[in-house]
Specification:
The structure is a homodimer. By secondary structure, the first copy, chain A, is α+β, with helices and mostly antiparallel strands. Chain A has 2 domains: about 280 residues, 3-Layer(aba) Sandwich (Aminopeptidase), CATH 3.40.630; about 150 residues, 2-Layer Sandwich (Alpha-Beta Plaits). In chain A, strands 1, 2, 3, 6, 7, 8, 15, 16 and 17 form a 9-stranded mixed sheet that branches. In chain A, α1 packs across α4, α2 packs antiparallel against α4 and α4 crosses α15. Chain A is globular and about 85 Å long. β11 of chain A pairs antiparallel with β11 of chain B.
Chain lengths: ~450, ~450
């Protein structure tokens, strides 16, 4: 059975699909702000109604926070679960928007048509690519793709407090052969991409205490040890002159890139000058012997996310402070063990703390890196589907940030996830004037139709 | 004429004198915080009224900042000028205070009675020792000591921006034969002391800017430079492994201690174990080849008084910040030139700032060290007076803090200054729970009566 009639139907009905997305975008489902609780509920209801119209067995499922949406197409065959989120980021600063963020419209721009509004790219536009693909499929074939589950949450932008409990309580219902996640982007706005490497994250807060109170730097300066200087020395020593991290054993479990992946990344011709130039930088600042893509995708990091101590207000205070603090985080890759690294880090710091100072630590989460099993044939099938749609070889890529849902699917439900998305780098997600290119929406729908076709073929 | 009746009067009226000090301490005259501008004004008014009641020709004198208080007793004879400051340090962290810093009280402690509250020791309690000495003198003798000027500022804790212009504009009025400054302490809380060496102070605020906005540490971590790490490296490099400061030319003008002063300091048998032990420390942290007294009196320092950047609130935010900041100060000695050191420091930092980062500086005052002319017979007279009052030989000592006013009196008005004060090492000035011993206040008043007696004797 050819997928072409479904693709033709998608092309014909794009105006109607766009209108449906605009209707969903008009609902201000800001999950982090309790004032918008009813709107989150309304967004869930809207989607449930739409999925019911399409023939899904769909329901809104209560949680202590915002509701989940769960829908099943029924039938036999490999069980696929699609994940997206219907909640959106806050819109402040509102004055930087060119129009009401919840009065979306299709706009003509020099770079083509865009759908402008909060949530257009993150993640309502993306989740609707999948639903619209199902709609065209149903309209052409008379029935939905078989054994499909749609699972949408409304708390992704506010830390997903209800997600793991809900997944645990409904594990049998949600456990599928593979999860499909649509919350990522094209590589450099042009190459279709499947994310197969996600960095883990380890957070540590460190406090150096010296004197038992703040001192006058005139009275004690020269004789009393300064915890800010101690902390600065520790931070300065965490990297060597080549940018390598000096915590003992830190690189245990950091794999070298397989040659084929390295070759694939070289073909991507990552424009690091533009990537850094867009934020006012020019020189890749990581390990001297690594490429920029390795620095952000496949190499671990150590960064200071915050530092404070002494007097930080206006003017000057000649205090010799009793304490200094820093928040330090590590991005992890491969099989680096966050708990081992935490212990090694703490022991390493302890060896650097001079007499008269004490160090204390507060841990802030520890998640390992994620590595998808691309040996599962579904990955190559999806890559083929994306390559056909975009007429550019799709790539397996890394992601420097952590996308917790992928880890939860693995740890809670024991299933792998395939991350495919159509956002572009200039979509301004989490910022004013968020947009989603009509091309992303249109070819995103077509992409899912092709992926579903490959994955559900007997 | 014996001074004894004045001393007796001081003893009898100590409760009333204490009440007056408590009233002044209730005025939160924090000069560095613009929110307290009116309170600084109110403190000046309070003192002017008190001095007028005493028979001084007193007035509040406007400046672009907080007002000065100037008062004259009139008459002939050697012209003595007394200096103090009515402004106080900020009180943060407020939660470490055992009571409202501006609700002072006389407390019984195991070590005797203390006056507790912000400014009790620095400097309202100290300046009131002189005013109370004048009051008792007037009440006993019927008139104030002759040809006395009282000169109080309200910006000592915020860099004294108006001081030099005011002194220049009013040079004829303020120029005296000798200045008396009450803003220092007893040596080791027991030996009366006249400070003859004062360290200078140079303050610098440094900002490192990297990216043009805060970045997500997942997306950019590894590739984008982190300004906190840059700042930490700079701070760590400002001292070598022996504790020497690495700014080029920094030690130009730093004298070795004369043999006789070194001998006198050895006789003081400074108990550095107690000095550091009282604040929870044990090891002198300065230059490895210097004694603890040298570290705090006769050697220059470089300290970090504050540092901040990135996320410093509760929890964790994986931000890669665009900026990092530090407040850095230098204590100066001998003939070190603060302006030359400022330039050398800035140029030195500039050589350490990597590509993609910018550094900017904000100066916070620059005062050279001071050295008094103890050959003036007034010094020996005052030392006799203090020795009689405290029944312990008074000493000429150094002072680790900078008391810029002493330098200004010399450079702007061409007069020497004699620094006598009664603070104790555990007064917690600039810290929570500041106090002034009632003994300091009481014997301080008596000391000034004796000093005035010696210096105004025909």
């Amino acid at each position: 059975m050819s997928i072409d009639p479904v693709l033709a139907r998608i092309d014909e009905t794009l105006p109607e699909a766009t209108e449906r997305l605009l209707a969903l975008l008009r609902i201000p489902s800001i999950s982090t702000d309790p004032a918008y609780k009813a709107e989150c509920d309304r967004a869930a209801d809207w989607i449930v109604e739409d999925l019911k119209d399409l023939g899904f067995d769909a329901s809104k499922r209560p949680t202590p926070g915002h509701p989940m949406v769960v829908a099943h197409s029924g039938g036999e065959g490999p069980h696929l679960l699609f994940y997206g989120h219907y909640d959106v980021q806050p819109v402040d600063p509102l004055e930087l928007w060119d129009r009401d963020p919840f009065d979306p419209e299709l706009q003509d721009t020099a770079a083509g048509k865009v759908i402008r509004g909060r949530g257009s790219s993150d993640d309502k536009g993306q989740l609707m690519t999948f639903i619209e693909a199902c709609r065209a499929w149903k309209e052409v074939n008379g029935s939905l793709p078989r054994n499909l589950t749609i699972f949408l949450e409304g708390e992704e932008e506010s830390g997903s407090p209800s997600l793991i409990p809900f997944m645990k309580e409904n594990a049998e219902e949600l456990k599928a052969d593979l999860a499909l996640i649509c919350d990522t982007g094209l590589f450099e706005s042009k190459t279709p991409a499947i994310v197969t490497m996600l960095r883990g994250l380890l957070g540590e807060e460190i406090t150096i205490k010296a004197a038992n109170k703040d001192l006058h730097s005139g009275m004690f300066g020269g004789a009393a040890i300064n915890p800010i200087r101690v902390l600065a020395k520790i931070i300065a020593s965490l990297h060597d002159e080549n940018g390598h991290i000096t915590v003992p054993g830190f690189y245990d479990g950091v794999p070298e890139l397989p040659d084929e992946v390295r070759a694939q990344w070289q073909n991507l011709a990552f424009d690091h000058a533009k990537f850094l130039g867009d934020v006012g930088l020019s020189v890749p600042a990581g390990e001297h012997d690594r490429t920029p893509l390795e620095m952000i995708w496949s190499r671990p990091t150590c960064d200071v996310n915050g530092i404070w101590g002494g007097y930080t207000g206006d003017g000057f205070k000649t205090v010799l402070p009793s304490e200094a603090h820093a928040k330090i985080s590590f991005r992890l890759v491969g099989s680096q063990d966050p708990h081992v690294i935490r212990e090694n880090f703490r022991n390493h710091i302890r060896t650097m703390v001079p007499f008269d100072c004490e160090v204390s630590f507060h841990g802030h989460g520890a998640s390992p890196a994620g590595q998808m099993e691309i040996s599962d044939p579904a990955f190559e099938k999806a890559r083929e589907a994306l390559t056909e749609e975009w007429e550019t070889p799709a790539a397996y890529v890394g992601c420097g940030g952590s996308i917790p849902i992928a880890g939860y699917f693995k740890s809670v439900l024991g299933m792998d996830a395939m991350l495919i998305g159509f956002g572009k780098d200039d979509d301004q997600i989490h910022s004013p004037n968020e947009k989603y290119d009509l091309e992303s929406f249109h070819k995103g729908i077509r992409s899912w139709a092709r992926v579903l076709d490959k994955l559900t073929a007997e």
